[in-house]
Amino acid sequence: MPLSEAMKAYYRKQGKTEAEIAALEAALPSGDDDATNKPVKPKVDSTRYPSISSPTQATSLINKVFQDILKRPATAAEMKKWKPLLKAAQEKNASTQTYTVKGKIGTQATTGGLDADTWLLLQLQQDPEYRAELDNVKFTDPYLFTRKTDKKLYEDAIAAAGSDVAKLAEVEATTTYGRGLKDLKDAIETARLAAGAELTDVEINTIAQEAYDKGLDRERNSFNAFLDQKFKFGATGAKGKAGEQLADLQKVAAANGLDLQKAFGTQLPTWFASINKGESIETYKKQIRDVAKIGMPQNIASLLDNGVDLDAIYSPYKNVMASVLEINPESITLSDPLLRSAITGEKELPIYEFQRQLRKDSRWQYTNQAKEEVSDVALKVLRDFGFQG
To answer: Which pLDDT value is given to residue 38?
Structure first.
């Protein structure tokens, strides 16, 4: 009796070849007996055991693999995509058990089954959608992925806190990311004060978050270099190291007859930033002296190049001027035209000639020296006319 198409299909699913099915068909008895017309039930020699994950197990498994290789949990959309794919793979790759008897010994063997972790790992590695992300993970510090997860928890907590000040403070104090960020903001503020940089609270918060997300707080040199790029400085009112530098530069400028703010005010923020990054302050003192030597004789310019200030160069003339005009030498500045006339682009006046020039100044006639000289002249005239013995 021939096999029905349904039976043939059944045997094919069992893995029987067409030849084996034909042999089974030939072995069937013929006749009209209902009992003999019934298909012979094949002998089962193996059993399949698909291991299907429950929804909870599937969620845990998928998240574990994502966390292991992508350093993040799967999104809701990814769960929706991978759960049915995982189930289909588990059904398709079910384990099988066989039992054989040889002599008096029975042997049960289990074959196959899906290693779900490995299967999902391979699927992700071969999926173009995840290639860039996997490459990024490969070259990124694992520590930063942990921090990225901490940040997500922090941001969710901040969003939940809304505008509640007390809750926001609690989030900052109790979350790993919040505590780390606050510590870094405090460190930046301390460094800012020490350097004399000018930053608003918003700028400090932005700088701290960028540095923390990049993990720069873990390496002091990288962190300091990062801050050097971010610090801003003003031209006036500087404090900390910048304030000390400002005072030093003002002193050099004044010693060379220059007003630092008028001559270099727009450049000062850049100077302070460069000094903070390691540039020597002497570089900018030289720039001040380079301006001061404009129009000076070559020998004076050479002195300035060697770090001598105009104040020191003009000092002998200033002392003579103070003596001749009987004024406080501290009141004589390098902006005094009479003092500056002692050295011009063409020449340097000898001291005695400068003294003669000082006597032509209107201030000299009010000095005791002038009065004594007039008195001496008058006395000589009187003597010449016989009025004094």
So the answer is: 58
pLDDT in tens, 33-54: 555 555 556 655 556 667 788 9
Q: How far apart are CA 249 and CA 235, in angstroms?
A: 12
Handedness of CA 130, 131, 136, 137 (dihedral sign): positive
Q: Is 259 helix (H, G, I), strand (E, B) or coil?
A: coil
Which helix H or strand E contains 111, and what residues bound it?
strand 105-112
Which DSSP string do the residues of 173-203 spell out, in sequence order? Answer: HHSHHHHHHHHHHHHHHHHHHHHT----HHH
**Two structure tokens written together for 380:** 């000589």
Instruction: State how far the Cα of 134 lies from the Cα of 122, in Å rounded to an integer.
Output: 12
Contacts of 153 (CB under 8 A, 6+ apart): 175, 176, 177
Beta-bridged to residue 74, according to DSSP, are none
> Does the pTM of the predicted model rise above 0.70?
no
Please say whether the dihedral angle defined by the alpha carbons of residues 331, 336, 340 and 342, taken in this order, is positive or negative. negative
Describe the strand order of the beta sheet including 46-49 as a list of residue ranges. 46-49, 95-102, 105-112
Write the burial class of residue 162 (CB in 10 Å: 0-12 exposed, 13-18 middle, 19+ buried): exposed
Q: For 136-193, write each residue's pLDDT tens digit.
A: 777 667 777 788 888 989 999 999 999 999 999 999 999 999 999 999 999 999 999 9
| Mean pLDDT of the residues in the chain | 84
The distance of Cα 137 from the centroid of its chain, to the nearest Å, equals: 20
- Read off the DSSP letter of residue 108: E
CA distances to 32, 104, 110 from 99, rounded to whole Å, are 37, 13, 9
